Amino acid sequence: MPPHLLYKHPPLNNINLTITMSSEENKRDNFVFSDEEDRPRVVQSHQNPGFCVGDKVYVLGSDGSTDGPYVVAVVVSEQQCTLCLENGQTAKNGEVAVGSCFVIMDDQHATASHYAILIGIDAYSNGPLKSCVRDVQNIKECLERKLSLVDIQTLTASKSLDPRKVTPSEDPEYWPTCHNVTSALEMTTSRAKRGDFVYIHYSGHGTRETPCFAFSNQSTGDLALVLLELDEHTSREILLRGPRLAGLIKAMVDKGLFVTLVLDCCFSATVYRNGDPHVRYLPHDNAVTSTLSSDPDDNLATRDTRSSNRDASMRDNWLLDPDRYTIIAACGPHENAKGGSEISESGEQYGALSYFLVKTLSDHGLGRRHRDIHRHLCARFWESCVGQHPVLYGNEDQGFFSQVYSDRRVRSTCIVERDKSFQLLAGQAHGLHDGDQFIVSPPDSTSNCGSEERFLAKVAHAMALTSRLELLGTWHNIRTGWIAEPLTCLYLANFRIQLVPDLPHHDEWLAALKERSLGIYIDKDQYPALQVVLSNNNEYEVLGGSGRKFINLPTMPRDQTDAKRIGDVLEHLARFSMVKDLANETPTIAFRELFNIQMICDGKTFGPGEQIEVRHGRIVELVMENVGDIVLYAHVYDLGPFWGVKGILRGTYETIPPRNVNLRLTGMSSKKIKMTVPLVMREYGSCEDIIKIVITSQPTSFDSLELPNLDELAGANTGNRVSRSDNHVLEEWIALDFPIRTLL
What we know:
about 750 residues; disordered N terminus; Rossmann fold; Thrombin, subunit H; alpha+beta
């Protein structure tokens, strides 16, 4: 991984450097800035040269790790130097570029680019907990091991060893009060600069409040964190409401910070009533709402985050700009987040999410995407039979408290070992069939890892939402959390492509199709799925099986397009077709009767399969009702006119618990979707979308089916989040389509 930051250490002090920067807000004392370049670079040093032979330097990699110390061996120029070890041995394999890759600072000007706020509360007067403070201490130690420079604020409340004291044992300035928590968040927002990473970890009680805002979750209510209000003699619980927390995080997002929020708490009244002292839920009546303003930012309720190409957009129920934040919640609104679900070697208790998160980060580092972290967490929970399902919201591609350094292409799923056999957390609903083959490898390896770490496997039996995996040949050391990447796909093999005989380099075309598991059209009695022809304009064209033309396909001039590029386009179209055709041909009647799903447009109600027409800029409302007695999970995707498959919930799934008046669960979920005609399609006067809803009886993920728009294909990575299945619930699923035509 190329390093991106060098901290300069003595003997040189008070160095004045001229730095080229792209942003005014990155200015520092003793530095002169100009706006000539997009990235920071050293252009002049008042002490010439900027480096001296013998200077000790540390290299900070983009994953946050440090490398060094090294000694400057040769100063080639102001932009180049070579490094050696302190014993004189050559290091770093040659010259190190100082130019656009580095910012050079002395000790006095070294600043953190990673900020952590860790909150753990055991000392509740009502419902005290035992493991939350230990959770954040564990997280703190992990971050300090992984990062050489991280600004950590820890706010904890441990039960005092003196039974006469009602206040925590920590100093008051470190108590997790509403004032201290909000001050920590605001201070971090003020100190951090654009592009910095912020990690917030909360371990404690959670609760739910009656929804009171337009963007509140009307089905389950608003989240609130249970903090403390303390003085020398009294202690009581006080709520930091979700909208207030959302506003504080929104300020970070608006400044350009990358935010990760982990919530190891729960929000369901049912779990409190089971009498378990480890459950992290506190009834709303046991706490008072903070007197701090809980009104969210006005923009929070009105901001439209639709991209210029997004024809269907959904307003997120919590934060309305999900591109720079990610939330990992311990469980859904109906589940319990427990402490003590995992016991360490010393017998100490930890919250299950915090415990597995530390193990994951310790084993695999920070420089992984949130979806990879979440996938690994879910596999751990599934293996351990913990009765909760971590949920991911926001930007799944964002790095976990770091830049992403893994280059794994992740259209993949996680494997779980149980009872001496292996399972895939994906099944028929994800497009798998018996006989599909996978390459199994460790989660922190890449597609270029050695063959000794890669094993061949196939699907022995694809069930509805999971599959039994059979390992082929000799294998060893495979365990839960390893990644299975698809090698062959029966659906794609049956998706026949016809290549016209006069295409040049015919053998290269056949090899490109075979590499992608795509079938070759041979049967003259049936139309192929797609055809590849060479037009009169000397451009490659992809046509439908009957010869019809598609819109919004990229232009592919013959002299600028190779077989690999067209193979990528064909695979993309085949996968789009697979998602479009995805259906359960044999759903049970009992499962189909558990829910009602409809779209409402201009006061009219539409059922699945009915054509909907809507004007540009208007709202359609998706209404999902649980009329049964089990929890349902809804996954909502937009199949758009640019051949993309996009999840529009911006979360793993929408949980729809059964109606329960006592618990204030409505059994309903309503989502408003704004339909537009993208600018580049205005000349056609309309566009076509399919809103696809998949209802499952267990938590799972369909991210392996997501596709970028076809014009975004170059360099795109697609992957998936996974969740464990419940041994006591049958695997059921059904897919419903709502075709929508949007008119100008």
